[in-house]
Design goal:
alpha+beta, 4 helices, 19% helix
Length: 261
């Protein structure tokens, strides 16, 4: 069964994701079957700029705008949807966002979670009808209960996200990207890969579009950029395939923690 696809970015300098987004966009109805909407969120300081469209990304004027408009960000979360739970409409389009500790939290999920809507919710309520948004509300509510204020040690939060991820992972397929505006969390239930680009930069060629970029010309020697995707987007670079059940935490383009089964 074809499921949704995820795309994330963590960088140490404000960076645009036009190249990777161009590849992902083709999978939304052109080179892939993910025709049921798409969304993307860019963090800018304390703000979060988000675009959503229930139309196929390969045919979306909003997607073309994002592709042309080089928004630079330290953290990006994107998603193209193949609907299996919840109808095709704007409120069911990922990524979803909520506030905690005065920060924008953003979440996108690929997979199905059987019985997740039986989990009780307290602080947060879904706006749409997807199992994904219910899972996000449950997860963030438990983080809020555990930490009414941000924990002093980031690793305590990472371990909490890890424990909650394992609980939800038992309900089915739970690949997700999550950001708290500081870190980017990538959880692999079944399929997720990542790639870090740093000096010396080389060329990258998209699999889904006739596009080649020489990052040497686009970057400085100090730039570090990590891209996370359901399936590798380029064919000439070495992607790291995450093991099922792993949670990896990225900050400023670097992998800062990894929890494996």
């Amino acid at each position: 069964m074809a499921m949704c696809e995820l795309l994330g970015m963590s960088a140490n300098v404000p960076t645009d994701i036009c190249f990777s987004f161009t590849g992902l966009m083709q999978r939304g109805g052109k080179t892939g079957p993910h025709r049921d909407g798409w969304g993307i969120a860019f963090y800018e300081g304390r703000g979060c700029r988000a675009f959503h469209d229930p139309n196929p990304s390969a045919e979306s004027e909003i997607a073309r705008l994002v592709q042309r408009y080089a928004i630079k960000s330290l953290i990006v979360v994107s998603h193209i949807r193949r609907a299996n739970r919840g109808r095709i409409c704007l409120e069911n389009t990922h990524p979803f966002s909520r506030e905690l500790w005065g920060r924008n939290w953003v979440f996108a999920h690929n997979g199905q979670l059987r019985g997740v809507k039986r989990l009780p919710l307290d602080h947060y309520r879904p706006i749409g009808t997807t199992d994904s948004e219910h899972a996000f509300c449950w997860l963030l509510g438990h983080i809020r209960d555990r930490f009414p204020r941000p924990p002093r040690r980031p690793v305590d939060l990472w371990r909490c996200v890890r424990a909650l991820s394992l609980e939800l992972n038992r309900l089915g397929v739970f690949n997700f990207l999550l950001s708290d505006a500081r870190h980017l969390y990538a959880h692999c239930g079944t399929q997720l890969s990542w790639l870090t680009r740093r000096a010396p930069f080389g060329q990258a060629r998209l699999m889904d579009a006739d596009m080649l970029v020489d990052f040497q010309a686009e970057t400085t020697p100090d730039d570090v950029v990590t891209v996370i995707a359901t399936q590798p987007l380029t064919g000439n670079e070495a992607w790291t395939v995450m093991p099922p059940g792993a949670l990896t935490v990225f900050n400023a383009g670097e992998r800062v923690a990894e929890f494996c089964v």
